[in-house]
Amino acid sequence: MSKPLSDDEIDHKRSTLVACAIALLEENGADGLTLRKLAVAAGVSRQTPYLYFKDKSDLLDAIRIAGLIRLTEATTAAVNESENDGYIEQLRVAGEAYVRFGLDHPTLYRMIYKPTRAEETVSAELQRALDANSLVTAAPMKAAFDDGILVMPPERLNQVFWAALHGLISLRNEGLIGDDETFVQTLEDLENILATGFLKVSDKAQALS
Amino acid sequence: MSKPLSDDEIDHKRSTLVACAIALLEENGADGLTLRKLAVAAGVSRQTPYLYFKDKSDLLDAIRIAGLIRLTEATTAAVNESENDGYIEQLRVAGEAYVRFGLDHPTLYRMIYKPTRAEETVSAELQRALDANSLVTAAPMKAAFDDGILVMPPERLNQVFWAALHGLISLRNEGLIGDDETFVQTLEDLENILATGFLKVSDKAQALS
DNA sequence: AAGCGTTAATTGACACCGTCAATTGACATT
DNA sequence: AATGTCAATTGACGGTGTCAATTAACGCTT
Fold it and tell me: Fewest C-beta in 10 Å: which of A33, A49, A76, A171?
């Protein structure tokens, strides 16, 4: 090997390494991901990852983005399957897909929302991935808002939605919500509160039925 | 030094080390806390922390508990200052004190909710600290419930409350809620949704006014 | 076809980390 | 004064992230 790699080749090697790193991550936990282990798992030599990532933080940033994309794909797929349902049902489906992803991939989910460096600015690429993810729920919310049944602008509701689900997933993944029953109950309560909290009063009774 | 240490002495040295570790943590970030640095910061020698903590995980567990206690103290103090206000106002005050603590001590807050080992069981002492913390908001909620203005049992509302605030703080601390305005707005929306979502319908109009 | 330059990829070296093992040192008892 | 006990220190080891030096493979020039 001698000539400069094309951008496509670089992208391919980067994504291979990232996929390999995520596999290690989900298998051995966050502490199990080490640059050296990644190298042997990817069949390359110790320093090779440094050709494609500035340092470990840079690799972790790439993992965050890749994880977010997977998360977005999962929720998008779930929403698409229930496309002809109403707004509320779509949001419920999206939320449950989001939660399911968080619980099915606890280490990756944690990594997505873990900063690499304190007070670091969100990179443009990460911001794009975040925006794409937020779009999944923003779309039905915007439609609902245009129909005049939302009590607040959809972006605001989306933030609330996001924060609440993220908190629930996080607490659950850290083992701080003891039993399954409590978790399911809390998720349900959260959904109901969000649903009844943002709908115009005249629609609340109907939504609750 | 030669004779066995009393339990008090052990407790004192442990809490000194923990306090020192928290200081390091808040100063240098989570990665800045190392057993060796802790030793020099505490003026002891390298291996001394091992006399009081089984390993680093054990130290981090102690930090989590100490952090939780501080958090509980902060919210308790805030609530006590507004003792003669109504339930809703007390909960709002508690929530805002909780959020403030999370934002003022991002590294410590993160550490509190970070598991030391995957799928680890919550220790009895940590569980006690968690219970004590949850009691701060559980008390006014229970009073409200006994007065018949809650739509769900207080424990359930408390879980929802906790998850929502935790999610908001986490996202904010990871820099994922860009500007101050959005954050404040989301916090406000969250409070309103929680307030209007759990109150009995007949009380909603009043609470919203 | 042979040599060269460029650049991918590997290997060497270093400081730092968590932690086990062996050592040192101070006090209470005899 | 000698001894045993236990707090505390120091030595040593494997593992990690990362910088620096080295090796190897390919396209271009002559």
Answer: A76
pTM over 0.70: yes
Residue B64 lies in a domain: no
Residues A103 and A184 in one domain: yes
Residues A137, A183, single domain; the answer is yes
Asked if A176's CB is within 8 angstroms of B113's CB, the reply is yes
Do both A128 and A35 map to the same domain?
no
Task: Judge whether B144 and B154 are in contact, CB under 8 Å.
Answer: yes
Residue A64: inside a domain, yes or no? no
Does residue A121 sit in the same domain as residue A180?
Answer: yes
Contact status of B80 with chain A (Cβ, < 8 Å): no
Interface test with A, best of B91, B158, B174 (most A CBs within 10 A): B174
Contacts B119 to A, Cβ<8 Å = 175
Residues B8 and B108 in one domain: no
Question: Which residue segment(s) compose the domain that A37 sits in?
Answer: 1-53
For position A37, what pLDDT does the model report? 98
Say if CB A192 and CB B187 are below 8 A apart. Answer: no
Q: Contact A113/B170, CB-based, under 8 Å? A: yes
pLDDT in tens, chain B (209 residues): 567 888 888 999 999 999 999 999 999 999 999 999 999 999 999 999 999 999 999 999 999 999 999 999 999 999 999 877 788 889 999 999 999 999 999 999 999 999 776 666 889 999 999 999 999 999 999 998 998 888 889 999 999 999 999 999 999 999 999 899 999 999 999 988 887 766 765 555 455 44
pLDDT of residue A69: 98
Task: Quote the pLDDT of residue B209.
Answer: 46
Chain A window 19-48: residues with CB closer than 7 Å to nucleic chain D are 33-37, 46-47
Among the partner-chain residues A106, A115, A171, the one whose CB lies closest to the CB of B166 is A171
Cβ proximity of A99 and A168 under 8 Å: yes
Q: Which pair of tokens denotes residue A112?
A: 């997505």
Number of domains in chain B: 2
Q: Is residue A60 part of a domain?
A: no
Same domain, A82 and A162: yes
| Cβ distance of A192 and B189 shorter than 8 Å | no
Which residue places its CA closest to the C1' of nucleotide D18? Answer: A55
Asked whether residue A65 is assigned to any structural domain, the reply reads: no
